[in-house]
Specification:
Helix content is 54%, strand content 0%. By secondary structure, the chain is an all-alpha fold. The chain has 2 domains: 2-227, no CATH class; 228-430, no CATH class. The two termini are 49 Å apart.
Length: 430
Amino acid sequence: MLNSFLSWVDHDQQARNKTYQLLASYGDHDSRDELGIGAIRDSISDFLFPGTSTIQTRLKYMLIVPWIYTYLEKKYKRIRPDRFGREAEEIERSLIRPLIATDDSAGAFGKTAKDRIKRLPSSVYWNGLGIWSIRRVKLSQDQYHSQIASICRRLNEGQQAVSTADRQGDSLDDQSFSQLSTWDPNLPLAPDGFPNSLDGLGFQLTKEEAEYLKDCMSIKNSKDNPHHVGNSLLAELVNKPFDLNIASPWNLKNQSTLNEFLVEFLTHAEKFSFLIHGAALLYNLMVAEIVEKETDHRENDLAVKQSKDYEEKLKIWDGELSTYGLKEWDLNRFWELIRHPNHDVHNKTKEFVKDWLKYTLDRPSQIAKSNEARDLIRMRERRKGAKSRLHKKEPRDRWGGESGTNRLRYRWSNVVTLLKDLYKGLGYEL
C-alpha cells in the first residue's frame, strides 16, 4: 500500500513554467529568443543551475512556499477541498506588504503591483521546489490543489501504517518513508505563529535555513546522472564560497577549484554564447536597415544611428572572433554535453547553429557584409510567419531598437542573487 502513495507525474506545471518564463523574458532584451535557440539556452541553464529560473528573486521563497502549504495541510479538515488553493493564495497575498516593509525588500513579489499581483511566488518556485526535493509530491500545483483531500487521506493512512508497523516491530524501507509526506520532513520550522503572526519574517536566512538549502542544492546521490542537482555548477558554488563579482559563469574557470567536466562544459557554453551573439547583432542590424528605409526624415536620424551602432558592434564582435577558438570547436561534443531530458533541440536548430558557425568562419570580409549569413538569418526568421520582423511591417513597428542583443549568461544574475542570500546565511564573506 505504501509503495503506491503519491506516485504521480509532474508535467503540467513544468510546461506552464516554461510558458511563464518565456512571457517574462519579453521584458528583458537579454533573454529574448529571436533566433529560436531557447531550447539550447535552457538546456545549458538547467544543467548549470537546476531548479532556478529567470523570474526567481530571493532564496527565502524556497522556504516560505512550503511553510504555507505544510500549515494548510495540518488544518485541511477545516478547509473545504475546493477552497484549499484559494486559502494558499490568500496567505501568499497577506505576506506581500510585510515583506515589502522589511529593511531588505529587494526582490519581494508585488513590490510594484502590491495586492494586484497576478503571478505569486508559489507558481514561480514550484518547479524548483521539486527539483531540489523540497516538494515530494510529484504533481503540478493545480493538481496538488485539486487532489488535496485524497492526498491528505492517503498521508493519514500511511502514518497509521507506520504506527502499526512500529507496534509490530516491522521495518519500512526508505522509499516508503519518503512517500509519507508531500514536503521534505527535514524542512526547517516556520517562525512561531506563521502565518498568523509575521513578526521577524524577512528574506535573511538563519544558519539552519541556509544549511538546509545548501544541502538541497548540492546533495550527490545520483552520480551517474549528469543532470542531477549534485553534479551541477550550482552544487559546486554552494559547497564552498566563490567570488561572485564576475560578469559571466565561465569566468569561474579561473578560480581553479572546479572539476574538469564543469570547466569543459563552461567552455562550450561560453563559445555558444559568443557565437550566437553575433547572429543576434546581425538580426538587429538587418531590422534596423529596413526601418531606416521605411522611416520619414523626422525619425531617420535615429534609424541611421541604430544601423551604425549595430555595424560597429559587429566590427567589435568580428575583432574578438579569433580569441574564442571556434575553428577548433567540437560541435558534436557540444550537442552531446547539453543533451537534457527536459529540452528537445530540434535538428533544424542544430543545422542553423552549424551553418552560422560555418558562415562565421568561412568568409572573406566582415560578417555584416556576408550575403550567406544574411540569407541564413532571413530564412531562420521565416519560421515566425506573421511575427517576422524581417518580413512583416506590423511586428517591425513594435521593435524597440534592440531585441536579444546581450550575451547569453544562462541566468547568472539571478543565480548570483540567490547565492548571495545563501552565503550571507552561512556566514561567508561577500
